[in-house]
Write a structure and sequence with these properties.
Length: about 550
């Protein structure tokens, strides 16, 4: 896939990037995503100075999707080493000192530790959907939808299952919180990521105290040696000082000793929060879609919803404002697998294509398909999908006997399928709940082929979709912006000057004048996607049966 240009900030980029970096003024964001760990180094206005990455994959072990913590450490070191090489190659400078640092990671999941800091059970990621009984009990008890992947659902699942480790729990956290503690020694979490652990209260900067009390009153947990508030991390909001990079933390990132400690750190966040920041979608009536292995749409609310909805998660922006979240476990994973198959075929014919050429050619074919994909349905369910009540996913391609099975229609069905479960959830939010959304901002690798997936999404949700020049930068860039904002807040406080809010920082210093393209819904595409989605819904029993029958 082609790489987009870096964002065009309002303020000028560092006049001499090498000098800026060697002076230790750059800001680093690291995000541990589902398939890649990425790093972005930026200047004060968010211009990308260098980047790095490391590929990794989760493993299905003993019925749970997991990543080994040793792989977390190895991935961080590899990613930062790749970043340092890019700094050297681009600017002829070593990466020795940074002004600020922030870590984000895939939200939710379950990391439980004892009093000695030992992991009590392998990391259980957001992809695990076996917490249905616990989530249902919590939703009833707390009076709001508690998704299967939330940390508290995993915690109660372990309690209800009588797991031995439960009595020894000293604290639970997310992947971002774990890495942040390794880097700084502080057990804190940004409010956006924390909102995927346990519901946030009306103040927007703390867990809901009434709901904490309700949890502790549950029969299943009443006799445990801890209370829920004692095992959850401290919450911080965007701009607050989350500690400094310690010598041990710097050594974890860079065992060579080149990177020095001392950088101020931003509150660790989840990938949903960094997606909002990376698209400047943190004001009411704005939203963003982040599309990768999973997908989620975040819509900042201007009024409360009618009540709890199983399709909608209530979370927050990194500043603590309420957000309706439509999350799907599956997005581009199956699409990438099919494109890998086409790449292998091209190579066998002696016509190997570079990745960007392959994606461009096949996405272009999809844009030429029939509006309803010609009778072809694609279910991209590598894992279970809660939005459509599929417990165990099996990727499935289904077509009518008379379907027009062309490359163009096949690729359009693949693109439609990538957003299928998301479209189901968005109908609940936009149609049933009547939430007003002026523009949906999109980012993630699927949007890096210009215009194609963007138009599909606009038609799927019948809303204009904007993609900025930074669309492919993703969460690591968003986390770097949060780190830059934290550094600026600290500097202003030291000087006795008023600090900018996150919204003001993004609007005035990063996104003012930024390039973006907007695709409006096309009437034919909207109607075609609606027909396709009707067939998609009708075929869901087949997808469920596939999960039950194919082990």
């Amino acid at each position: 896939m082609s790489t987009p240009a870096a964002p065009q900030p309002a303020a000028s980029a560092a006049p001499d990037p090498a000098r800026f970096i060697t002076a230790g003024r750059a800001h680093l964001g690291i995000e541990l995503g589902s398939t890649r760990i990425k790093a972005a180094l930026v200047d004060d206005a968010g211009t990308v100075l260098a980047s790095g990455s490391h590929a990794w994959e989760n493993q299905l072990e003993d019925g749970s999707w997991t990543y080994a913590l040793a792989d977390v450490e190895e991935g961080l070191r590899s990613c930062v080493a790749d970043l340092a090489r890019d700094v050297q190659d681009r600017h002829g400078a070593p990466l020795e000192q940074i002004a600020s640092l922030g870590v984000s990671a895939m939200m939710h999941g379950y990391l439980a530790f004892d009093a000695d800091g030992e992991l009590l059970t392998p990391f259980r990621t957001w992809r695990n959907t076996y917490t249905g009984e616990a989530a249902a009990l919590l939703s009833k008890t707390l009076g709001q939808n508690i998704p299967l992947r939330w940390s508290v659902a995993h915690l109660l699942h372990a309690v209800l299952g009588g797991e031995e480790h439960v009595a020894r729990i000293a604290h639970v956290t997310t992947l971002a919180g774990y890495v942040h503690e390794r880097l700084t020694g502080r057990r804190v979490l940004g409010v956006g990521d924390a909102s995927g652990m346990f519901p946030i209260g009306p103040s927007g900067d703390a867990f809901d105290p009434e709901l904490l009390t309700r949890f502790d009153a549950l029969d299943a947990v009443r006799d445990l040696p801890w209370q829920i508030a004692d095992v959850l991390p401290e919450i911080l909001v965007a701009g607050q000082d989350a500690g400094t990079l310690t010598a041990a933390g710097a050594a974890l990132l860079d065992p060579s000793g080149t990177l020095r400690p001392g950088a101020i750190t931003a509150p660790p966040e989840g990938d949903a929060g960094t997606g909002m920041v990376a698209t400047n979608a943190i004001a009411p009536r704005t939203g963003n879609v982040s599309a990768g292995t999973s997908a989620f749409a975040m819509v900042v609310l201007e009024r409360p919803l009618s009540g709890p909805r199983v399709e909608i998660d209530m979370v927050t922006t990194p500043a603590g404002d309420p957000v309706a979240m439509i999350h799907t476990n599956n997005c581009a994973g199956d699409l990438d697998a099919w494109l890998g198959l086409f790449a292998s075929f091209a190579e066998r014919t002696g016509s190997a294509l570079a990745a960007d050429e392959l994606y461009a050619a096949l996405f272009a074919a999809g844009s030429e398909g029939e509006a309803d994909a010609g009778g072809i349905l694609s279910y991209n369910y590598i894992s279970g999908e809660h939005q459509t009540h599929v417990e165990s996913g099996r990727p499935l391609l289904v077509r009518e006997q008379g379907a027009r099975f062309t490359l163009e229609n096949f690729m359009r069905a693949q693109l439609y399928g990538a957003f299928g479960a998301l479209a189901v959830g968005m109908q609940v939010l936009l149609v049933d709940e009547g939430v007003e959304l002026e523009t949906m901002f999109a980012h993630g690798g699927i949007f890096r082929t210009e215009g194609v997936a963007q138009q599909v999404l606009a038609d799927a949700i019948d809303t204009p979709v904007a993609v900025g020049a930074s669309a492919g930068e993703g969460g690591a860039w968003g986390m770097a912006l949060l780190a830059a904002h934290t550094a600026q807040v600290a500097a202003r406080a030291e000087a006795g000057a008023p600090a900018p809010t996150l919204a003001a920082f993004l609007a005035e210093q990063v996104f003012a004048g930024a390039e973006q393209s907007v695709r409006s819904p096309a009437p034919a595409g909207v109607a075609g996607y609606a027909r396709w989605l009707e067939g998609y819904r009708a075929g869901l029993p087949v997808e469920r049966l596939a999960g039950e029958s194919l082990s």
